[in-house]
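@channel anyone free to eyeball this complex?
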Amino acid sequence: MSLNKRNFDALIVGAGGAGLNAAIQLANADLRVAVVSKVFPTRSHTVAAQGGVNAALANVLPDNWHWHMFDTVKGSDYLGDQDAIEFMCREAIPTVYELEHSGVPFSRLDNGKIYQRAFGGQSQNFGGDQAARTCAAADRTGHAILHTLYQQNLRAKTHFFDEFFAIDLVKDAEGVVCGALVLEIETGEPLLIEAKTTLLATGGCGQVFRTTSNAHINTGDGMAMALRAGVPLMDMEFFQFHPTGIAGKGMLITEGVRGEGGYLVNGRGERFMERYAPKAKDLASRDVVSRSIVTEVKEGRGAGPKGDHVLLKLDHLGESLIAKRLPGIRESSRIFAGVDPVIEPIPVFPTAHYVMGGIPTDRFGRVMAPAGTGEDALPGLYAAGECACASVHGANRLGGNSLLDILVFGRLAGKNIIEYVKENPFHRLIDPASLDAALSRLARWEQRGKGPTVHETRERLTRCMEDHAGVFRTEEIMTEGLEKMREIRAGMSDVRLMDHSKVFNTARIEALELDNLLDVGMAIAASALYRQESRGAHSRPDFPKRDDVNWMKHTLYFQEGDRLDYKPVRTKPLTVESFPPKERVY
Amino acid sequence: MKFRVYRYDPELGQKPRMQEFEVETHRGMMLRDALMAIKAQDETFAFRHSCGEGVCGSDGVNVNGINMLACVTAIADLKEPVEVRPFPGRPVIRDLVVDMTQFYEQYKAVEPWLKHREPIPEQEILQSPADRDKLDGLYECIMCGCCSTFCPSFWWNPEKFLGPQALLTAYRFLADSRDQASAERMDFLEGPYKLFRCHSIMNCVEVCPKGLNPTKAIGHIKEMMLKDSV
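replying in thread with the prediction:
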């Protein structure tokens, strides 16, 4: 069989905020860039981001990037790398202005500047009064940004491969990544894209959990591709549960609701956050608020007939503010919870939302791998966005920092790729064995016969992850979870696809996604079990304290043998003094 | 609940047909949930979907004759048996999946990006809240295609008439105080087809899942052109 081939200077896998902000840099520099996306670009999950993007513009209250940096380091529970965090908080300001110049319809203040709202974990003057740092386009900021970036890429004539699914990375004989094998969904034909550089920008993996705010497409594809290529995943035990998903469904209700003055009450009508975070209350960090909600429900103070959720109250904000600043969540509440928040509170419960961990990179988006006693950049391989780990979020991400992360590091990865291609102008020769391995991943699903279906296996997996890797984690629960995940993995070779047709076979795509979910789910389960402390989103009743002596280090999970390794946190910023670990109170 | 869904697989060499499925329902179930339940029964059934909350715009379908977004449509609001078909007027690739190339080409044709001619300031380009308000009802479009594929003018002249989505987008930039290419944009829309094939049938308004009003936007463009010509 002859395989179709295309070649480009740069291949970008994923067309969300990170991929598109990288692509625009490359296309503007006249590089030949291919963006491969399994969905039409504006369907990428960046579109669902609601509240906004953080930047210390000081449009509403005094602010500067150094305060933003402090909040981010503290929010990360001191696991974030401080050089990368300083860099991100500085770059935030020009990045947001560049977006505005590109056309993003930000909400405005009376003086014509960009509107900014308060979000959780934000402070002035290193832990002082609440700051207002989140730049917003009503509660549709991700949509506004993603559409604008797509539009700018149309202007720059970026080459799009819409509805192509990435199978695996391919390498040369020395092991250097030189493109990827992809599948055209409409025809079912594989295509080899050869590239001097490859950027993974495939987003998150929230679909490993049964209840999630993440879209059906968020199956950790790029992370799993990296694992299979021998690259470790970093800090995968840190998975953020957003405090306010619509109860029982998981759709997101933005933290911006609380930023605008909404608050949580339990079944008795008490504002319980006062007990858990006396100062920041409802605007404490997400890990803190999620644990508080789960605790209220566990201790019998939940709301509703089953007492299984709490209530988010915002009717006191008034209809006009809600219509102006929070129109999208009003719509979602009506459709999915059957309540109009102008009149009654929204039933909410934590929902799996965001993976802090991912493919380890430096602050230029270069993928880093252990080498000798330190680490080295893998030539030609980049990662940015939720699939990557720079690491700016550490053990817990602040609201408004994820749009920022994807935009800053997407942009910088793009700029760094331009330099790399200048210095490495030639394509490398793909090793046939590497291509065969990628093709065999496709061929595996051609096996006929009877076996468990993809659908039921995916349900088993997501149920297991929800039961064993949730908000509170004990040794016993997690050991059982890892065992079950190993059983599912052992049974994977029996799973069968019933539909082997070629044209727009979504069942085949879901089978390939199942492979990815399993690989990423194993990384989470294995990494979580061995971290014997509570830090950020990783909360262990059996080890309730943070342990900076033994555990202030990053986890690295390698797929081969489910091996774990660790590396130090980079506590030295670029230009300012380091923020030493302190007790984290809000 | 009974669902009749449109089936077509080009590899089978058979004509399209309607297939009936019985789906177990639950309170608060959305049409997308029902389509996923059908896929769990028969994995050969193909449709696009992703976010499940009405922002990605993937799962537009035609239900009992009307275009809608499956993930924000409660099945309790639908009449049984529920007939689910692909968007009308578009080439069917498989089952509910249609070829949207033409729709995207129309979008690109209006050059949907901000054109600011003056030097870029160091900070944001200022915009008053009143000017920003003019973008409400325009920028929220999710490009699902419910409107354009339900527009008779688009069915009759898909090559020449831009359709409601692209025209809404054109007006989104005409209405933006930061955009400085109005003359060029209006020149492009001149002529009997691109814009003026809209006969205000208002199917687009009826089906838009985001409650937007392309007909009104088209009216505004016509007004701008009229003002421009006198």
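from a first look: Chain B has a mean pLDDT of 96.
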